[in-house]
Amino acid sequence: MKLIPKIILIGCGPHAKRVYIPALELLVKSRKVELKLVVDLIENEENIKSFLKEKSIDCETIFCHGFISQSLPSSLTDKLNNFCKENNINGVIIATEPLSHRAYAEWALKIGLNILMDKPFSSRNNCVSDLIQAKGIKEDFDFIHDLYIKNLAKYNNIFIINTQRRFHPCFDFVLEKINEIKDLTNCPVTSIEASHCDGQWRLPSEIVTQHYHPYNSGYGKASHSGYHIFDMVYRLYSKSVVQEKCADEINIVSSFIQPLGFLKQFDEDDYKRLFGNSKYDSVKKWSDDELYTILNDYGEMDLSTIVTLKKDNVAIGNITINLLHNGFARRTWLNPGDDLYKGNGRVKHEHYSIQQGPFQNIQIHSYQSKDKHNAMSDIEDYWGGNNHFDVLIYRNPLVCENDSSMQKFSMQEILNIYKLNVKDKLVTESVKHNIVQDFVRYLNNELSKDDIDSKIDDHQLPVKIMSGAYQSHILRNRDENPIIKYSFF
């Protein structure tokens, strides 16, 4: 009789509740996997137990105190080790906040578990202001990657980073089009402009009090959804370049806007004019003068980063990355909603412009206009729809397939090309579910390592960009040379 893989989930916050738990529910029902344990912080015990009961999920729970060390507390390590040994655990999904990623990854690797871990690879307290902590993000990767390689011969386990755009069919389509021109012309990608906006309006006092996608731990947008974009620009370039033309060095320069800048953009008087004095006073916990002392060195809200690609010390391409929390949102209310993940007026805008010398420009436009993503009646891939994703392709007549130099493809048209049927849900969430399914299929020996993307080995450069962006910001604030240099490989 075939043994069913057994896994544990560490972290059961908004993202896990919306993505991991629904995906695992289906896999558990089909006898593909057993979810044996959920681990979270002790302050969330009542909420998570209630959630698991509501979902009729029968598994054990461990609740622990938060920790700030780079390794797990010994008491927690002992509990987890004993549980995994007694229950023959095969894998772990790590869905904690990023400050804990290194500690849980180290523990899991030492006992040979297969790992699916949320992005970013890691982050650090105060990495927006402390150069040692900013550098520590790359050091976390180096430490964990070395440990993974060291233990491969003993365990032969897999370590996947959940960057879902790598699994998104529309990004696969773009990569195919880029490679078509590379094969025809031998021209690599020469320029990338990337922009991502979360569309989150967080009121000044909430910047202090909220701990989901926080600023109050000294990190922000780059450590939240920003890592997805660092990863995607790397992928768009690296998957399209011939080896002899590939960059051997990157230079990174960045500029951050932190909450103090946000206060200067829209101050207390502006909020009162918009909502009324008494209404704003009812949610305001601190005045702007008080916030100016509290918010110093809080994490970044918006950032711009330029990555210069160099070969033999010659610049051969630029990647510009603009990442925003503070952008168009649909929030019109003063008290935050319960759902800070997909709710609370959050609207996503994402854009790429990819140049391939004189031969091709590909533009990706993904713009939502609604903040309600649950009640969907169709694919909603129109401009402003929940699944909006248009790809525009411009080609030089020398390499053009027809008389027109431009082609446009919608989300539905691309799904049709791949014979995929996704309705009534966000395609990004469908992709996230597929990642969990692939992880479980690997545990069931239905997929090989070669069949799975986004393994730890391929995340060194996105981590360098993220760490370098923080370092550059800190050095710029010190009026020192803000250029951070790393090898490409």
Automatic annotation (TrEMBL):
InterPro entries: Gfo/Idh/MocA_Oxidoreductases, NAD(P)-bd_dom_sf. Gene3D superfamilies: NAD(P)-binding Rossmann-like Domain. It comes from the Bacteria. This is Oxidoreductase family, NAD-binding Rossmann fold. It comes from Acinetobacter bohemicus.
